[in-house]
TrEMBL record:
Gene3D superfamilies: 1.10.287.130, Histidine kinase-like ATPase, C-terminal domain (3.30.565.10), Jelly Rolls (2.60.120.10). Pfam families: cNMP_binding (PF00027), HATPase_c (PF02518). Residues 467-486 are annotated as: Disordered. The keyword Cell membrane does not apply. It comes from the Bacteria. Its EC number is 2.7.13.3. This is histidine kinase. Residues 294-466 form the Histidine kinase domain. Residues 11-118 form the Cyclic nucleotide-binding domain. The keyword S-adenosyl-L-methionine does not apply.
Amino acid sequence: MTPAELRTLFLFEALDENQLAWLSERGRVEQRTGGSAVYNEGEPATCFFVLLSGAVTLSRRLHGDDIEVTRTDQRGVYSGATQAYLGDRVDQVYPNTLRAVSDAEFFVLPADEFASAIRSWFPMALHLLEGLFFGSRAADTILGERERLVALGALSAGLTHELNNPAAAAVRATEALRERVAGMRHKLALIADGRLDGTRLRGLVEIQDAAVKQAAAATPLSALDASDAEDELTDWLDEHGVANPWDIAPVLVSGGVNVPWLATAAEAVGEDHLDSAVRWLAYTIDTELLMGEIDDAVTRVSDLVGAAKQYSQLDRAPHQVVDVHALLDATLTMMRAKIPAGIRVVKEYDRTLPPVPAFGAELNQVWTNLIDNAVDAMDGEGTLTLGTRREGDRLFVEVTDTGGGIPPEVRPRIFEPFFSTKSVGEGTGLGLDISYRIVVNKHHGDIRVDSRPGHTRFQVCLPITPVDDSADPADSADAAGSAAGG
Ligand SMILES: Nc1ncnc2c1ncn2[C@@H]1O[C@H](COP(=O)(O)OP(=O)(O)OP(=O)(O)O)[C@@H](O)[C@H]1O
Ligand SMILES: [Mg+2]
């Protein structure tokens, strides 16, 4: 390209004749056919490219997915070895993949030539760029680590607390069960000593089976009804010579056994063995109820593990189509221990919403931060409302609280990193900054807030269809290496 042609590109418009001549001598023009890759992410960055004609896309690989970050046909946009001037202090590889989507033409400059031009022509700008680059990379590392820690902390704190109760319940019930089973073995021996004949024994086993079914189907009685039923059973047992009936009656009642049922059973076993048989029945019912308790506790544990998996999206691809309701519910389960009893949680979900392409685990981070803030704002009492709805091709997730609201002088600063009105140790001021970066940079969405005393609503808006040509989702350090629009 001639110096005059080079000057028409916005990147070179302020260069002097000598500089343009230098570029013209060292650069070359290259053509690529539509559909081909110009260079691939991770390859050694050997050239700097300026688009002359045609259309291109830039994409980045994120956890195995290729994500398009820019699509443009603007003449003069540049990409490639944009960090060559940093020399060997950074890994000189292409940070993204450039593809020609139509036949395209580029002005191409070898990376080392480009680097030496920048160094000798713009020494001061070079210092500034270096400061910006290394500064923002350091900040990113710190924030990224903090982000992972926050996620991990929230997850493990919620989980340990929540898992503790059912696990302890299962341990308690298992111990009781062990005692009951030992008791049953003992009773069995007593029955055998009473020379129970085969028919009677069969009758007893049948009654036992019936009692198990009865116990499983028993509906819990009110305290008053239960005590009436216990009195009635105690009287009956007493009349029929069963010792200490008040010990047995409550268990029988909780297993749904009543006087007519017991009378039928007594006929099958015979008066002689009634005492032992009734005790055996009580043991049967007790074991059955304990096994039910263990079953509930273990189910709760596995539900929690399921929620933790859903929350962390551990077994899933990081970017995929997700149902926001499943994410919100998993987050609520994980956070339950942190929501005080005085706060009512209301779900206003529009279940007809379609699943959206998203980074699920990261969105969970967003809900966690918003719910965390809402809970903090309500000081133990109020209503937390989680809502979803659709507007056109966008989906809204809303977290609303009835707390004190955000004062107008605070409002402009809440998304700044490290801005917090909470005392040291209570808030780091990163919650909303992290959320903003996840929603806006990674999902091309938006976070808005609307607040007055007694009503604060954070709105997260996500595109329902994948975004094609939007802003670069990379953060500042990466942006330095991507095609800038001009
Ligand atoms: N729902 C809300 N009601 C009232 N004020 C809020 C609400 N959400 C956020 N804020 C204000 O915004 C500030 C920044 O929130 P952010 O989540 O970024 O940090 P933090 O909650 O202070 O600390 P961190 O989330 O890192 O533990 C809060 O300190 C608070 O003053
Ligand atoms: Mg917060």
